[in-house]
Amino acid sequence: MGDTTTIYVPCDAAALSVGADDVAQAIEQEAKQRGVEIQIIRNGSRGMLWLEPLVEVVTPKGRMAYGPVAPHNVESLFDLGFLDGNDHILSHGLTEAIPYFASQERLTFARCGVIDPLSIEDYEDHGGLWGLRRATGMAPEEIVDVVTKSGLRGRGGAGFPTGIKWKTALEQNADQKYICANADEGDSGTFADRMLMEGDPFSLLEGMTIAGLATGATIGYIYIRSEYPQAVKTIRRAVEIWQNSYLFEDPDYTFDIHVRVGAGAYICGEETSMLESIEGKRGQIKVKPPIPAIEGLFGKPTIINNILTLASVPTIMNKGWVHYENYGQGRSRGTQPFQLGGDIKRGGLVEKAFGVTLKQLVEDFGGGTRSGKPVRTVQAGGPLGAYIPASEFDVEMDYEKLAEAGAMLGHGGLVVFNEDVNMAKQARFAMKFCEVESCGKCTPCRIGSVRGKETLDKIISGKDVEDNLVLLEDICELMTDGSLCAMGGLTPMPVRSAIKHFGSDFKG
Amino acid sequence: MTKQVLRICGEHDNAPDALLEILHKAQEEHGFLTKDTLVEIARALNISRADIHGIVSFYDDFRREPTAGPCIKICRAEACQAVGGEDLTAHVKGSGVDTHDVYCLGNCALGPAVMIDDVLYGRVDAQKFDTLLKARS
What we know:
The complex is a heterodimer. Chain A is α/β, with parallel strands linked by helices.
């Protein structure tokens, strides 16, 4: 059928949350009624979430974008000829010419929203599998060397150099090693792991397989949080396809991938806690050392990497470390998928080289607030990240520059708040969140969070404000210095930044 | 229930490290985890009842009692707070339905977010929530 039109309707969870399934169904019905031949492909999201459900029509000029489409728009879209790419009140022209999309530097998310997530042929047609092919012909040391030189650092939040971690695991003599992909993306304001797993799952599987070749690991686990049922479904299916693909016809070459689903514990994003959870235990953290690369899952050398870290590896192997390293600045090389959330007009995913300013992200890409009120602050890096005031939005987004500013990149989530926000209440929330999600292993986190929350309650109600602020700082210091992991250790970061930049909110 | 539980455990080779998968599956089939179910799983996996209690009580997802109506998860985290999530929470809790507080559903650009029986909804306000709930009952 030469005149079948291809239409893309995302099956990303965010798109589904605003009715993408209903839209796909409406388009199918309308086409049937009119006797028009169409083929609907359910892709991932392009990351322009304010336009979801974003419907794309393949035309000779390229893929034309329409959004946000509601089922009641479908009739008029057909009437006005959207199948030929014609104008409509919802049209945005060519998807890839939309400034938000066109000014990004997509390496990790190059295929997300472009391809059919579960078509390995589509994946390969768009540059997939070439990284693995190159890696197959290389010695493990050479693969580790490429990853090290690329400057890739852990995108989960800690920013540890990936190549060094891999080298440590490679150097271990063990009968079994593991690769664990950490998809326990619990930070508020982050959704990049989810988007990637739903939009381009094979890039994760390819990255894990390369990590296996590089370190001698033959078993991989993907640990996904239970709040992501759509990602779990997509990854399970993708693993099935991947394991049965022709890649594994060679009987000497196996890399088994298992999927494990979390059970609603934020702490399981901490690597040692995640390993406990994969072993079927309480997700309590473990004291390091030994580090997991030496003694991890079931006591064996284990690489734990974030989804974005692993999904960046195929591109690095395919295009070479120089290509990746060319992006970014200082010791922050490559690109970072930033996620714009909260009160933001154009929320979504923006992948840019390190060095882009917060102002560019929030204003140029994000377009300010959805509510139309002035921006007061952005919380960067999740619930354990600092609140950055609007006066400091010129900060360049990389690991070191953010650390200098008393903040952190974390997993790249940016939550925008308007002028109505009360920062004392946000500081209290940080302590409350720690109280709820602490694994309970160490005292500074388990009890410090409760005392911190109580002290903030007193401050908010105007009781001995000066004295209680001194006490709060004392608690913050103790939690920072005395906690076993980042949960208790970083909870003071949002609290202290709120007091530092928005002191007037803490006057009771 | 015994047969079902043993089948689920068997599908996972009675492996203790598959416990979370087994608990998820048992809860999915039965709605919640009864004391008997936990005893049977403990026996099949050769772990103690104390261990399994420790694990089930650690994770928020596992329910020891049946819930009335659908499982409603409401996001209480920062990105939803920034767009009126707390007003929505007040409305939902005020309407007397059973809800679970969760911290982030990964729909941070389209908040406030709510999940009803594993179906995610975005840009939910009080009116939209009432419509969703009515459609399900």
